[in-house]
Amino acid sequence: MPRAVKKLTTETKEPIKTRIKIPIEFSLQKFFQDSKSYTPILLVLLLVASFLLGALTTKLATSQNSTGNPQTATQPNTPAAAPNVPNQQAPAGKIKPVTDKDHIRGNKNAKVAIVEYSDLECPFCQRFHPTMKEILQTYGDKVNWVYRHFPLSFHANAQKESEATECVAELGGNDAFWNYVDKIFERTTSNGTGFALDKLGPLAAEVGVNQGQFQSCFDSGKYTKLVEEQIADGTQAGVSGTPSTFVNGQIVVGAQSFASFKTIIDQELSK
Fold it and tell me: Which of 52, 62, 73, 136 could form an S-S bond across to 240 if both were Cys, CB 3.0 to 4.6 Å?
């Protein structure tokens, strides 16, 4: 009897395996054969799904842009898309009034005063500098240009370069100051360390300042506080990046074009 049971058990297992294996192999084979005929349909469905996904993404992006989000501190220098519309925003406060202690280029009694908060290592300020020169050349005595310091913390040399310009102004006057600023912008490669600090002294001599006296002033750090005060003044007035300019108190953000500034300057002159 045990042998008969053993034989029955052995025979019942093998047929079960065969019955299970045959349908699986047959089903897989049939699936792959049939899937070939579905391939064109699947491709069409994938294309339709891709199109719908793209349309949905575009709609969401358009919806977000329509909310009018202001520029952040990481985007202070981007020109406006429309060249004749200045990128204005409401200032958080008022800047300090312009006085004789400011560095003024042009007619001190001009109807329009453009106060620029700038960074000597900012590539956008460097690009904007010739635009401000063009504005003065175009409008003459109707407009003046006031330079104030706003060195950004991630531009390693900017703070000391700002202090250097103040030493030049002390020793050489207003014209020497502007000449010095012009030359730094002409020669710096920007982005933080574009103009080496050890070249500030020779450049001071180049604009007519005694280099020894300049170096003594520069090393003393006597103008560190003044630069920091101008940063604080700009910050409370809404400055978060450079260049930021105030046209008769109205803030304009970024390296805007001449045409952009012309629009607001003409408005101010017509008042």
Answer: 73
